[in-house]
Amino acid sequence: MESTSVNFEEKIGKTVGRRQVPEVSEVSAVLQQTGSQMFARWGKGMPKGVYRYQSHEEAEKDLIRNYVREN
Questions:
Q1: Mind listing the pLDDT tens digit for each residue in 20-41?
Q2: Domain total of the chain
Q3: Contact 40/57 with Cβ under 8 angstroms?
Q4: What is the distance between the alpha carbons of residues 71 and 69, in angstroms, rounded to a whole number?
Q5: Labelling 49: which of 25, 41, 61, 65 has CA 20 to 30 A away?
Q6: Tens of pLDDT along 3-19?
Q7: Can you give the residue range of the structural domain that contains 68?
Q8: Hey, CA dihedral for 30, 34, 35, 36, is it positive or negative?
């Protein structure tokens, strides 16, 4: 087997691109807006309670039915 050594002190010669990291406040504002839009569209989703299903397919079908129904 061949051993590979990594020098963590080595400087990278060239960086391609200049990606800007968004501000935390911008990211949280977008997430808040998305959550508000989803709540306005789908409401609370499933009614509260305990649900028992015979299969995962049956549970998925019920979940989709509750999300798609008109409020």
A1: 777 888 888 888 998 888 777 7
A2: 1
A3: no
A4: 6
A5: 41
A6: 788 888 888 777 777 77
A7: 44-71
A8: positive
